[in-house]
Write a structure and sequence with these properties.
The protein has a domain of about 240 residues: NAD(P)-binding Rossmann-like Domain (Rossmann fold). Helix 5 links the parallel strand 7 and strand 8. It is built from ten helices and 14 strands. The chain is α/β, with parallel strands linked by helices and about 350 residues long. The protein starts with a strand and ends in a 5-residue tail after the last helix. The protein has a seven-stranded parallel sheet with strand order 3-2-1-4-7-8-12, with helices on both faces. Strands 9-11-13 form a three-stranded mixed sheet. A two-stranded antiparallel sheet has the order 5-6. Bound molecules: nicotinamide-adenine-dinucleotide.
Length: about 350
């Protein structure tokens, strides 16, 4: 691992930044290169303790600019790519899908091309300096579409993306798969469920619930709040990624989930119950009174749920946090962050 140069795209984002810290701890000798466009979703504060430290490089740049991507590969010769960079918010993809095509599809393509040119001597043959190279694409369970009340997604599930966001992630997945099969690029890919934890952008569900609750506003829930997601604590996701990166065989795909199916209303109720105890309202009433159902998201998928048998049996990975423990840590973070709200 000493000579590993790990290019982490999207390392200023929510999951990417958590992974940067996780990887620095478990692989202190690896050189980490964060490559991020620093969009509205990024926050350099998430990694500011690492900037200007040894074996760490931050590059501000756009993965959908091929010249920039090629330059980064030429200058830094990464041995591993962990590709998080994406436009990631479904609502934004409905309002304006083009950036999702540019970043999630075109950007992934330029990274694959640069990796192929840097690592491969010829199709199916890696240059000796890159014999342990890996290109790891972080995908989502949303590429499989929506489940009814029963059933789970697994590695054999059919693709059926329903939003411009999930369509762009699905397209990127197919490009990744094709580079493994056609050129022998050593790819890895995982589909994970809804992540939550500290430092998530304000626009996402859990920060929105906590922020609106504390500021006395209506707590907005789409539709009737019955849409179900599998909730994965971000630190568990990072440990799974690290395991797949270290032990996954090129070409493999893994599903990663928290074994924690909850409706949006369940999650919201669990949060307001904790808030009622940890920061009771002066009025003595419950934050639950602020829950307000709002017009549903267009094409809102009903249910996602993940079967984690493969990663458990092949790599021995299981999530450590149940929802209650994960939410407790998460709420502590946002209580501190939002402490000055009116
Ligand atoms: N958050 C989840 O629950 C979840 C679930 C499954 C999969 N994923 C996937 O995990 C990855 C990370 O998700 P996240 O929640 O941390 O996202 P995020 O939106 O918090 O962060 C994305 C990061 O990518 C960067 N970025 C965006 N466009 C870029 C570009 N053109 N060039 C370089 N950098 C760019 C942003 O600046 C940001 O730092 C994404 O690929 C997402 O599809 C997320």
């Amino acid at each position: 691992m000493e000579n590993n140069k790990v290019l982490i795209t999207g390392g200023l984002g929510f999951i990417g930044a958590h992974f940067v810290h996780h990887y620095r701890q478990v692989q202190p000798k690896a050189h980490i290169i964060v490559f991020d466009k620093n969009t509205y979703a990024a926050n350099i504060d998430r990694i500011d303790d690492l900037v200007n430290t040894a074996r760490f490089t931050y590059i501000e740049g756009d993965i959908s600019n091929q010249e920039t991507v090629n330059r980064v590969f030429e200058e830094h010769q990464p041995t591993h790519v962990v590709h998080f960079a994406a436009e990631s918010h479904v609502d934004n993809s409905i309002a304006g899908p083009l950036p999702f095509l540019k970043t999630n599809v075109e950007g992934t393509f330029y990274l694959l091309e640069a990796a192929r040119k840097t690592w491969m001597q010829s199709p199916q043959k890696l240059k000796s300096a890159f014999k342990n190279a890996r290109f790891y694409h972080i995908s989502t369970d949303e590429v499989f579409g929506s489940l009814e009340k029963e059933g789970l997604f697994n590695e054999q599930s059919n693709y059926a993306p329903n939003s411009p966001y999930s369509a762009s992630k699905a397209a990127a997945d197919h490009w990744v798969r094709s580079y493994f099969h056609t050129y022998g690029l050593p790819t890895l890919l995982s589909h994970c469920s809804n992540n939550y934890g500290s430092y998530q952008h304000n626009e996402k569900l859990i920060p929105t619930i906590i922020r609106t609750a504390l500021s006395g506003e209506p707590i907005p829930l789409y539709g009737d709040g019955q849409n179900v997601r599998d909730w994965l604590y971000v630190e568990d996701h990072c440990s799974a990624i690290e395991r797949v990166l270290a032990e996954g065989t090129p070409g493999q795909v893994f599903c990663i989930g928290g074994n924690a199916e909850r409706s949006n209303l369940d999650i919201c109720t669990a949060i307001v119950q904790q808030l009622d105890q940890r920061q009771p309202k002066e009025s003595g009433t419950s934050y639950a009174e602020q829950i307000t159902f709002v017009t549903d998201r267009l094409g809102h998928d009903f249910r996602y749920a993940i079967e984690t048998t493969k990663i458990k049996t092949e790599l021995g990975w299981e999530p450590k946090y149940n929802v209650e423990a994960g939410l407790e840590k998460t709420i502590a973070h946002y209580l501190a962050k939002y402490k000055n709200l009116p």
